[in-house]
Specification:
Two copies of one chain form a homodimer.
Chain A lengths: L2 E5 L3 H13 L3 E5 L2 H10 L4 E5 L7 H10 L6 E5 L4 H9 L4 E4 L4 H15 E4 L2 E4 L2 E4 L4 E4 L2 E3 L3 H12 L5 E2 H8 L7 H13 L4 E4 L3 E4 L3
Parallel strand pairs in A: 1-2, 1-3, 3-4, 4-5
Antiparallel strand pairs in A: 6-7, 7-8, 8-9, 9-10, 11-13, 12-13
Helix pairs in contact in A: 6-8
Chain A binds a DNA duplex through helix 6 and helix 8.
Chain lengths: ~220, ~220
DNA sequence: TAAAGGTGTTAAGAGAAGGTTAACCTCTTT
DNA sequence: AAAGAGGTTAACCTTCTCTTAACACCTTTA
C-alpha cells in the first residue's frame, strides 16, 4: 500500500481528496501548510507528494525545493490553480514530476498518481518490482534487471521480509525475531547482514533507533 | 536471432533505434503507422512488438488491443511521450508487458527487450536450449551440440527437472521429493548426482541452504 | 569539548554446507 | 556364480556463511 502526503489548505477539497484517495487504497497523511508538511517528512517516508502550491508559511514550490536539496527524491505532483506556464515551469524546476490544474477530474489524478508510483513500485503476479529489482514471492528469487542474484539463507530471509513489507519500516526487534530460530541473533550481526544486502545494491534505509526499510526512492 | 516489429512515425528516432537494435543483434522491421504494422503482423511472426503510442491511422493502443483480441501474444513494449503518462494504465489494460518513456536511455530499452524475449526464444518445438545443450522434452534426450549424452535414470530425472524449470531455483526438498518413489533419498546421494551432472558439463549453480538451479550463462 | 550512543565497515575464526572420491550394496544379466 | 551397472553411504576435503570483535564515523548530550 502506497503512502501519500497531501498538503492542502482548502479544507473541503482536502477532505474530499482524502476520502477518494483512501477509496483508491492509498494511505493518506493530510496537512494544511508547508511547515507541517516539512515536519511530516521527518516522521515518515512517503511514496508520493501531492502539494498544493498556495499553502501557508512555506509554499509548495519552496517546500519541494528544500526537500529536493536535502536529497529527497519522492515523486511529487503539484495541484495548482494558476494555469500560467511560468508557474508550471517553476514547478518542474524545483523537481516536480507532474502537475494537475484545479479544478480537476479525480480519475485523472488517480491515474497520474498510479503511474508515478508504478514507475518504481509494481506488484504483479507474485513479482514485486522495485526500481530494477524483481523479487519473486513464490520462488524466493531476486533479480536485478534480468540477472539472478544468489542470496545466502539469511540474506534471503531478510530480503523476503523487506519486499513483503515494501516501504514500511521494520524494527530491529522484529527482524531479529524473524531471523532467529530459538536463539536471538545480535544487533551487530544484523548490521553486517544489512551491509551485505546493500552491497547487492538494495536501497535499504536506516531509521535511527528503530530499524530499517526498503526504500522506494 | 530475434525479430522485432518497430512502429514509430518519428523518422529520426526510428532510424536511430533501428541502427542501435541491429547492433544488438536484433532483426528489425520498421513501419511508420498502425495500418502498416497490422499488415506486417500477417506477413511475419515477430518475437517482440515495440510500439509508439501516437502513430497515424491506428494508434498503438488500438493496434495492440486488436492484435491481442485475435490471439496474438507476442510480448509488447510501448514507447510513450512524457505527456502520455496518464494513458499508461490504458497500455497495460490492452495487454502491454512493459513501457518506456521518451526520452530514454537505449541501454534500458535493450535490457527490457532482452528480458522479454529471452524466455520465449529458449523453448521451441519441444526443445529447450541452454548454451550448447539441447534437451528434447518429448523424447527425454540430452544433446551437447550434436552429440547425444547418455544419462542414467536418475540423472535423467534430474536433468528433466532442471530443464523444465530453466533458470529457476529448485529446492533440495523438491528434488528429493521428485527423485524418491516411496523412500526419501538422502542429501548425500543428491550431491553425488549433482556432481555427475556437472561432469557432463551442465552449468548447475548451488544456492547454499536452498537448492540448485540450471544457470543461464 | 568530551563523552556516549548508534550505526557502518572490515577482518578473522569457527562452524556448517556442499564437493569429491571410493567402497559397498543391490539388482540384473550372462 | 560372476560380472556389470547404477545407486547409496561414509569419510574426507573444500568453500562459504555467519558471528564476533575492533575500529571509524557521526550525532546528540552533558
Amino acid at each position: 500500500m502506497a503512502r501519500l502526503l497531501l498538503v492542502e489548505d482548502d479544507v473541503n477539497l482536502a477532505e474530499t481528496l482524502v476520502e477518494l484517495l483512501e477509496l483508491e487504497q492509498f494511505e493518506v497523511t493530510w496537512v494544511g501548510d508547508g511547515e507541517q508538511a516539512f515536519d511530516a517528512t521527518f516522521m515518515h517516508a512517503y511514496d508520493l507528494f501531492l502539494f498544493d502550491v498556495n499553502v501557508p508559511f512555506i509554499d509548495g514550490f519552496e517546500l519541494l525545493e528544500s526537500l529536493r536539496k536535502s536529497g529527497d527524491e519522492t515523486p511529487a505532483i503539484f495541484i495548482t490553480a494558476m494555469n500560467d506556464i511560468a508557474s508550471l515551469s517553476k514547478g518542474f524546476e524545483v523537481g516536480a514530476d507532474d502537475y494537475i490544474k484545479k479544478p480537476f477530474e479525480f480519475d485523472e489524478l488517480a491515474v497520474r498518481i498510479n503511474s508515478l508510483i508504478r514507475k518504481r513500485l509494481k506488484i504483479k503476479e507474485n513479482i514485486i518490482t522495485l526500481d530494477d529489482y524483481h523479487f519473486h514471492i513464490d520462488t524466493n528469487e531476486l533479480y536485478y534487471q534480468d540477472k539472478f542474484i544468489a542470496l545466502s539463507p539469511i540474506e534471503l530471509k531478510l530480503t523476503t521480509l523487506f519486499f513483503k513489507q515494501l516501504s514500511t519500516t521494520i524494527t530491529k526487534e522484529n527482524i531479529l525475531m524473524e531471523l532467529s530460530e530459538g536463539e536471538e541473533a545480535s544487533e551487530g550481526a544484523l548490521r553486517v547482514h544489512i551491509n551485505k544486502l546493500r552491497k547487492h545494491g538494495l536501497p535499504i534505509q536506516t531509521i535511527k533507533g528503530t530499524g530499517y526499510r526498503l526504500a522506494t526512492s
